[in-house]
Amino acid sequence: MALGEGVRESTLERFKEGRAPDGRRWKTSIDSSQLRNSIQVTADASGFAVGTNAKHAATHQFGDQGRTIRARKAKNLRFQVGGQWVSKKQVKVNIPARPFL
To answer: Suppose 64 and one of 52, 77, 95, 100 were both cysteines; which one would form an S-S bond, judging by CB atoms 3.0 to 4.6 Å apart?
Structure first.
C-alpha cells in the first residue's frame, strides 16, 4: 500500500505543477480538480493499482484527435473565434494528451 500511495502522491504533485510523468508541461486546460480528486489507490497481496474511474480520464491521458462536440440542450453551440461570434450545431476539436499517470 505504501508504494501505491507514493505513486498517487507523485501524481497529485504533477497536477499541482501541470507536468506529465516525463516532466513536460501540459497545455493549458480548465482546472476543476475533479480528475485530480478522483485518483485512488487499491492494494492487495499481489500488488497495487493507482487510477481513476472519471469518464474523461482517458481523454486527458491519451488525447482525442477529431472529437465531435454537439449542442445538447440548445439549438447550436455558440462561441467566439477571433472576436466574432459563431454558431454551429457541431464542431470537431483536437484535444491534446495531458498524461497524468
So the answer is: 95
Condensed to tens digits (0 to 9), the pLDDT of residues 64-81 reads 999 999 998 899 999 898
Using DSSP bridges, classify how beta strands 84-88 and 77-81 pair: parallel, antiparallel or unpaired: antiparallel
Q: Which three cell numbers stand for residue 70?
A: 454537439
pTM given for the model: 0.67
* Dihedral-angle region of residue 23 (phi above 0 means left; psi in -120 to 50 means alpha; beta otherwise): left
For the chain, what is the HEC assignment? Answer: CHHHHHHHHHHHHHHHHCECCCCCECCCCCCCCHHHHCCEEEEECCEEEEECCCCCHHHHHHCEEEEEEECCCCCCEEEEECCEEEEECEEEEEECCCCCC
